[in-house]
Amino acid sequence: MTVKIWQRQKRTEDEINKLARKILAKMTLEQKVNQMSGDSFYTKEAVDNMMENGYNLEPYYAGQDEELGIPPIAFTDGPRGIVIGNSTCFPVSMARAASWDIGLEERIADVMGIEARAQGANYYGGVCINLLRHPAWGRAQETFGEDPFLLGEFGSAQVRGIQSHNVIACIKHFAVNSMENARFKVDVNLDERTLREVYLPHFKRCIDEGAGSVMSAYNKVRGKYCGHNEYLLSKVLKEDWNFDGFVITDFVFGMYDGEKAAKAGIDIEMPFTMHYGDKLKKLVEEKKIDEEVIDNAVLRIIRQKLKFITAEDKQNYDISMVACKEHRGLARESAEKSMVLLKNQNNILPINTDEVKKVAVIGSLANTPNTGDRGSSNVRNEYTVTPLEGIKNLVGRDIKINYQDGSDLKEVARVASAADLVIVITGNRTGDEGEYLEDFGDANNGGDRDSLTIAEEEYEILDTAINENENSIVVLTGGSVIMMEEWKERAAAILIAWYSGMEGGNALARILFGEVNPSGKLPFTIPSSEEELPFFDKDAEEINYGYYHGYTLFDKEKYKPAFPFGYGISYTSYSYDNLQTELKNEVITVNIDVKNQGDIEGEEVVQYYVGFSNSKVDRPLKLLKGFKKIVLAPQETKTVSCDIKIDELAYYNDKTEKWEIEDIEYEIYAGPSSDNEDLLATKINI
Q1: pTM
Q2: Class of domain 27-320
Q3: Is 267 exposed, middle or buried, given 0-12, 13-18 or 19+ CB atoms closer than 10 A?
Q4: Active-site residue among 250, 267, 373, 432?
Q5: CATH fit for domain 329-551, picks 3.40.50.1700, 1.10.238.10, 3.40.50.300, 3.20.20.150
Q6: Is 250 one of the annotated active-site residues of the chain?
Q7: How far is residue 168's CA from residue 125's CA, in Å, rounded to a whole number?
Q8: How confident is the model at residue 1 (pLDDT cuts 50, 70, 90)?
Q9: pLDDT in tens, 7-51
């Protein structure tokens, strides 16, 4: 009977629910608790082994029951690729958000689903959708930017792609997790409107998309650890949102009290058994926890296992698919579509090899594999194409490439002055930002940044190069905002290349030399001064999160950013005209004509915002509510349409505890960035 139950077959939702209850009814308390506990036990040696020998080299298991034939969940991390094995390394999530290409993100998630299954995993913990409140956050690279709508669209695309291969998608970290160094202790305070409107909508979007699981966060919210927070896990997630999946802890330090965690709504302790297992069983036997709490958790777990682990597969999953040629090609395409061109003075880009014969490539990062931090998101790809390698691969036979790593500033000056053109590769690398691992025995990795500028030694190299040669192109690597006020006016061109994955060097070269027209747009605001940003203290015991951040804060305070949210230019130019709106069946349809005014094909991201200047409550000047990435041939015009549901206009009334839509006149904006000067505007009454 058990073998048949756990064979892959097609079942309806009703059949799954009935079967899950039937299985639950046959289980002993010990078997139930086993479903809620990691399959290994916590010891200091186990954690040391996890860090020293390689995190998540193989799946982490929970809930294996040989007697009942119940398979375990088999966890792999992300989000720049599958962490187990030697998988395809894509650009980091922040880079992919800069593509503003939802279809591309779903294709990437589809590949991750294939590579997870091919390596024995059925559970993916890489859908990181925490909001970038302040760009100094160490793990900014793992998420999709500062805007809740953008986060929700990219997160739900990941959910669709991953789960299409019967891999359970886990969205993380729930909730309000936007600091790194203090993540185990910080208590985040915020009002209900801010929580519901700013920090939770993207999680709700992914739940509505069908995400099978949620990971709680380490931090506290309003005085309670997220793993003990009944309001977040039970009231909001399971009651208000009708989430029927299961909740796991963030690893090792995701809970401190089994009784509090179980009552709050933690369904599985991962990856080790510390507070559940026999301790949880004893709490039930001592009547400190009602067995109904256990039954609810186990029913959720069994239901998702039946839904995904026993569902019919649409294909076979062979190990040869991992990092295959097709997947590596997608990694390059993703890197190409993610890079953001911020400045291109006198059209110095793309580089014309008929005119440019000597190129200086400067900076140690030009010849350093640099795919992101070495925390839980680290992908062990078999190779990484560096910027220098990519440039040599593409044009090494056509032009002379002189490389200087920056260790000798006199040599930097000599090489730069002798070149027709200089490419400076600078920015951040592993150790400058990322997951903070001191509590796991590694004090040398990442964490929150103290400054948003590049390191002093990097600035000296850049400064020397651009002072010697006015034809200097600066390429920035990193996972978040890099401020450039000291030098941006002196650089001829500025390109953000991010942590661009295993094929990043090839992608960069193809953009620099014109084989690809850049189309990326910023998923965050770059300020002119750090003083314009929200308060940030990386060692805080307690912090308040306000209603405004990012472009909404800049709009409210009338700050002029260095580069606005949604900004990015290309090798062609676009014009916008004829903004029209129509309200029908609770949907606002917005149409705008976009023309490619140049002589090369390009991709443009059309952005749609809704304004609330007539609101009776405090609301942002405008919020992103839609975007479309389109391809335009030279001189081609397209009418680009976007549907905005009336529900998207609602605000959360903390007095009535309901979402409400005001009967007012709203502004509708459309254009190439969030800058008000870039946007066409009209009005509509609701």
Answers
A1: 0.97
A2: alpha beta
A3: buried
A4: 250
A5: 3.40.50.1700
A6: yes
A7: 9
A8: very low
A9: 899 999 999 999 999 999 999 999 999 999 999 887 778 777 777
